[in-house]
Amino acid sequence: MIVLNSSDGATFEVEESVAVQSQTIKHMIEDNCADTSIPLPNVNGVTLARVLEYIKKHAEAKDDEEGLKSFDAEFVKVDQASLFEIILAANYLDIKGLLDLTCQTVADQIKDLTVEEVRAIFNIMNDFTPEEEAKLRNDHAWAFE
Amino acid sequence: MAVFSATSRADVGFLHQNGSIPCINDSLGDDELRAILLKLENDKDKEIFGLVCKRWLHLQSTERRKLCARAGPHMLRRMAARFTRLVELDLSQSTSRSFYPGVTDSDLSVIATAFSCLRILILQNCKGISDIGMKAIAANLPYLQSLDVSYCRKLRDEGLSAVAQGCRDLRVLHLSGCRFVTDSLLRTLSDNCNNLEELGLQGCSSITDSGLVLLVQGCWRLKNLDVNKCSNVGDIGVTSVSKACSSLKTLKLLDCYKVGDASILSLANFCGDLQNLIIGGCRDVSDESLKQLAVACSNSLKNLRMDWCLNISDSSIECILQNCKKLEMLDIGCCEEATDAAFQGLGGGLFELHLKILKVSNCPKITVVGIGNLLKSCNSLKYLDVRSCPHVTKADCDQAGLQFPETCKVNFTGSLTEPEVLF
User: Fold this and answer.
1) Does residue A33 sit at the B interface (CB-CB below 8 Å)?
2) Out of A6, A42, B263, B286, which could bridge A10 as a Cys pair, Cβ 3.0 to 4.6 Å?
């Protein structure tokens, strides 16, 4: 069993065979940095719990494609702030499947939207001047394939 | 915890004023935003991504690897400032010159200094560029691997030699229509570009055998050599190419009328991987050497164009058809000695030909009997050219009850467009 410490002091136990879905953790184990416990200063307790939920499910139900698909679909039904936390954690812990899943979820939100709608959904400020924006839209109109 | 889904967009306008939606730019780093960008599949979404804000514009621009544009100098400078990690750039102009003056030498200066990661540069028909532009490329793009300056008519040995010396990792070089190119450039390529795999010299009519001999001393990795219409090329040049370039897959010798049996025999002896061969117009080539080639390259030959080889007769055509199991295209147009006997051995159904394209135009001795025998072994035929064959007309075929494969188009009178053969 591997012990993981989140940034806010929470402790989690997980089987090594499950934990190595994270390449980051795998390398730490291989480099012998994991005697007592592994500190993860970039991930808080709530998010780490979520991530562990994902990798546990994907370890135990490995061959159940249908089951995993519906698990994944439910897993990403969270508020944006939490989703971003999971993306950051998945990247930091280098868990490809989780990173792909969560980034695809965000990409799907962007699909087929207009620029204004994208800015609204993600609360992004438009920092182009009107002239800059007009020039950019012009570029796209006729120069590129 | 609140559930947020993309379908509740109606709520979004209300929410964003009071800050309860996180700002994605504060939450995620560049790494994560790039990962999201990579999940966008269609180009329109990627362009939208780039218009959202300056940070997203930077991410999208530096992600872009390939660009194809018809742009004036002003636009080029903007692109150079924006797409700094571009790997492939295609600025080919159409032959009809949609705008004037087109790509200039100073544009090439901008490109060479700004796109430092460029590996592939395509400038077909950019008739305005000269050796000055080539020197800019030579000085600034040492990692360039592929350059296409077909029909850039002003280019000369001087500029192109500079490219050879500056871009020593060149793999692909297309110079069709650059008629000022001489053997001197071939020597410089040999001295500098040992990784060269593909060289196009169609219409570079000053090239001679000596140039080819020099070329393959250093460029022995050549897989694809096009000297169509280089009428000074003959057996000495071709035999030296065969001996040096054992990986040769494609050789084009259209209208190189000095090429004869010695060349074909050397290909048979040294180039067992040969797939594509054009010897149209090489009228001295005869049956014996072709038969040896058919046997030597029986497992590799795919496309063979030998129209106007006036000395060819049935024995070599039959040998090719029966030996070259992977043959897909055969052109024996204007081979006047060809008769039905060339196809006789195929009637028994023992052979399954994979032939897709057959051209026998202007073969006055071929009749529906020969075509009928061919069809018995050939289910994959997609295009048959029998123009100017007096004994193979539409009426003759109908009368003989010939059964063409369903997808096959037959060109009797020249009204069909020819299929494009790409190699």
Assistant:
1) no
2) A6
